[in-house]
Amino acid sequence: MVFVYEGAKDGVRSLRAPERVTLIVDNTRFVVDPSIFTAQPNTMLGRMFGSGREHNFTRPNEKGEFEVAEGISSTVFRAILDYYKSGIIRCPDGISIPELREACDYLCISFDYSTIKCRDLSALMHELSNDGARRQFEFYLEEMILPLMVTSAQSGERECHIVVLTDDDVVDWDEEYPPQMGEEYSQIVYSTKLYRFFKYIENRDVAKSVLKERGLKKIRLGIEGYPTYKEKVKKRPGGRPEVIYNYVQRPFIRMSWEKEEGKSRHVDFQCVKSKSITNLAAAAADIPQDQLVELHPGPQVDELDILPNHPPPGNSYHSNNEPDPDSPSPAV
């Protein structure tokens, strides 16, 4: 590139060779015209050699060279230079799309179908899907999920369990014989769109990363059985009813906004050493009682906070919560 300028005194037009700067990337030197960077002022290199040099933020080393793009390979950087010349980056052979994506993010270069060209369309579509999933979930989070979290917080809860049902799902529980304890504490989102979004494990991974970035704790996303309606009631010997519910597999989100979920902060139980040995196993092993206290510390979780496990899909529920006489006895 050639620059044309007029002399300040005689107005004679003359020619000046373009400026050249040397960039060092991955121990490789690249001699370029910095004007190609300033033509893209929103990129990192555009800011470095534009406003950065004007305000003396971008400085060369003792040899007059600029060390940039730390952590990016010279092969990737050579491909990225094409973006400043033609607006297109062609992924080099042997370079993965995630590696190219990381370099583009670092250099503030747009990563989309109009910028990136590669042979591995599967990997490219995967990255574009991740971008789309992130934008979509951020919308779902604000519009559907956050209001339910606020409702839980206002009722004094420290966590939230949300089940995603389709628009056509119907929940009709029997008031006399409801499902096993636990489901009544969950909240429901009726959204076929959100249900289809969470069907993909990749979308669930993206959603989990977004929730982590927003500061939430103890995040669990997956698929679980949820009872929708009572199928039938059987009479067992002794007149005890057996209620069978229909279960559907639906996505769920469980999360907390507290750092110490499940731990009691109000009461600190101290263990008092006893002079008599009441543990027969310890007595047989001749373990001093003071060491026994250290080996078996008291529980740190409030047992009132521990809820029973959800029944697997298709399991029955006895209304009086008595043990099933037909079930096998536990092993001794």
Automatic annotation (TrEMBL):
One of its GO terms (biological process) is positive regulation of phosphorylation. It is found in: Cytoplasm. Residues 19-124 form the BTB domain. The keyword Lyase does not apply. This is BTB domain-containing protein. Keywords: Cytoplasm. Its main location: cytoplasm. It comes from Synaphobranchus kaupii. The lineage of its organism: Eukaryota, Metazoa, Chordata, Craniata, Vertebrata. SUPFAM superfamilies: POZ domain.
